[in-house]
UniProtKB/TrEMBL annotation:
Source organism of the structure: Perca flavescens (American yellow perch)
InterPro entries given in the database record: Beta-prop_Vps41, Clathrin_H-chain/VPS_repeat, TPR-like_helical_dom_sf, Vps41, Vps41/Vps8, WD40/YVTN_repeat-like_dom_sf, WD40_repeat_dom_sf, Znf_RING
Name listed for the protein in its UniProt record: Vacuolar protein sorting-associated protein 41 homolog
Protein family (similarity comment): Belongs to the VPS41 family.
Major localization listed first in the record, in broad terms: cytoplasm
Protein's cellular compartments: Cytoplasm, Cytosol; Early endosome membrane; Endosome membrane; Late endosome membrane
UniProt keyword Nucleotidyltransferase present: no
Protein's membrane topology: Peripheral membrane protein
Biased composition (Acidic residues): 14-26
Amino acid sequence: MADVEEQGRKQSEEFTDESEEEDSEEEPKLKYERLSNGVTEILQKDAASCMTVHDKFLALGTHFGKVFLLDIQGNVTQKFEISSVKINQISLDESGEHVGICSEDGKVQVFGLYTREGFHENFDCPIKVVALHPQFTRSNYKQFVTGGNKLLLYERNWLNRWKTSVLHEGEGSITAIQWRANLIAWANNVGVKIYDIGTKQRITNVLRDNVSLRPDMYPCSLCWKDNSSLIVGWGSSIKICVVKERNPTEMRDLPSRYVEIVSAFETEFFISGLAPLADQLVTLYFVKENSDHMDEEFRARPRLDIIQPLPESCEEISSDALTVRNFQDNECRDYRLEHSEGESLFYIISPKDIVVAKERDQDDHIDWLLEKKKYEEALMAAEISFKNIKRHDVQKIGMAYINHLVEKEDYDSAARKCQKVLGKNMELWENEVYRFKTIGQLKAISQYLPRGDLRLRPAIYEMILHDFLKTDYEGFATLIREWPGELYNNMAIVQAVSDHLKRDPTNRTLLTTLAELYTYDQRYDRALEIYLRLRHKDVYQLIHKHNLFSSIEDKIVLLMDFDKEKAVDMLLDNEDKLSTDRVVEELTDRPELLHVYLHKLFKRDHHKGQKYHERQIGLYAEYDRPNLLPFLRDSTHCPLEKALEVCQQRNFVEETVFLLSRMGNCRRALQMIMEELEDVDKAIEFAKEQDDAELWEDLISYSIDKPPFITGLLNNIGTHVDPILLIHRIKEGMEIPNLRDSLVKILQDYNLQILLREGCKKILVADSLSLLQKMHRTQMRGVRVDEENICESCHATILPSDMAKPFSVVVFHCRHMFHKECLPSSGTIPGVQFCNICSAKKRGPGSGILEMKK
């Protein structure tokens, strides 16, 4: 069958023409091939008159009265000499075991293909049609009908004799019969009738529309879609009839079934055959066209269309013109359309040609896509249906697609498809790489080469790297970063990069790439040198990742010149690998860098670098004065004399004031604030911090002849020094700015102090009373004394064993208990005794006495 299909594909253009389609890009729905082999020889000597299709074989009748049984490839399996004239109809039952044949000379034969039983009859008129019961093989369904001038039903009775009954007559010759289940449909000159063999009732009569057409030249085409749907084609009219059950209440004398026409429409051409295809119809048309040079019509190629029926019209899905042999000599009645329900095969029968149409499968769909150069869609279709395609290979389609893209010079898309199409085929991969090299497009395929578990030979990767190295340094660097170092010979690439650097020694891209290659090769020292030389941001990551701290001892200055913050953080985070002393030694000649390092060290821990605090004084003074004062305040290891000397040399007043105050020379410090800074607010703040009466006196003495200073003092002195002292010392007649406001503020501050004192006194009295009441309630409570309590002095049980004897026990409010005789004599206050234990700690109200006697 595959050879026949291939031959059919080659012959397709011989008998199909799709040039008439409005859209040439639309994919055809059917594919065609000629039925050849034995059929070719038969039709050379004879002509086909009819054919019936079974799922297992074909039955072909000829004009010379012969019937041939064929396999589906067209090979003859059996031959029957029936008559010397035209075979009009061949009918098969569903099992394909019995055949019915009628001919133009009135002969009717019904016989079993595998048994000897049969029926033979000669009529005195031509018998146009014959139809076997679909279940003819079963003994109780031995029925068939014939059609000539009348419709006859033959039934075999229990005596094994054939009984004949007339189902219909008087309306001309019967031209078509179709039997489905219990329904027989036939056509005569008037119209189409349907007969129910079960109820023995005629159901309906569908009249012929165009009565002007000769029924013998334009015969009716009948086809059952299912057990209740009949398709009628006559002339250019198509009707779809559905047999339905009648409502029992409406029957009366009517048949139990009725027919409803669900679709009726006209077609452009004359109908030669009909067949169902799912919910669509396959129609064979006889076409007549007007000549361009003559007024007469001529016979054109027949058309096979697929249409979608609608209630009053139809929609054309596809249309193919078929170039069958001798189509110019054929009439509408010479064509027939038969179909095989099981495989959706459609046979177009003409006197000298038989064409098989079948639905296109996925292979055909891919063929069409490839023909239209729609390679991407073809590849997608093949991938989706890879289990169902027989003639195509996904990889071959993919290769065709890649070739197509290369021809279009879309090299990037072609390379991208290689990743998907070539898969794990190493040989194909290498062939494609060499092809891309030949056309000078190694760059396009480089980013798609396999680099995971599947790997090509190292020479392939090296070839691409060398190509990039010649033309594109940036692309070369990208590949080195993206490709694992195991893909190629690292030493060979290092040597190649080194050779290029000899010609261009300052090229940053090549230097960076060489550092990465050294890193892959675990030659970290060389990589570090290049990174430092380039001041590359990855240098710190390289040091951390590969623990290269021993290699950077002499490169600390370079690291800090590149990025001080990162370098210092790295050094401080790894003090166990690079000691502070070693770092300070390396930075001695670069004091500005040394300051940055020691400053961050001091911020992290005030005590770690204590031996460098003296050096830091000068460093802060030189490079970072804003942080000098915080350093002096926080450091406990800084020599104050050295610091004072440095600050005085540089005239750092604020720092000098702080140092003088820390060294105890507060009066000199205050003097500097007043004389050099002339900042009364700061002077007042300083005096407040020291809280020294002599300092306040010095401040007042210095300010007494300076009105602005007096204003400042009046505004701020009230809470530390009695303002009256200052006011008494102000000379009469001295003009003081904002004196009135300052005096008002003093009075307000005084009132505020009075209010605060009164408020505090009220709170203190209330709290004292509350606590006194609480203590009184506590002391008024009884105290439990039992055998478990002991005397705190003699440690004997507090209660005597004989409770009948008199005894005295002293219980203090602090819950300590004593025998009365164990207590020492009264203290300094007559009549008052205190707990010895609590009195030894602190005498208080809890040590009072409770005496218990008996």
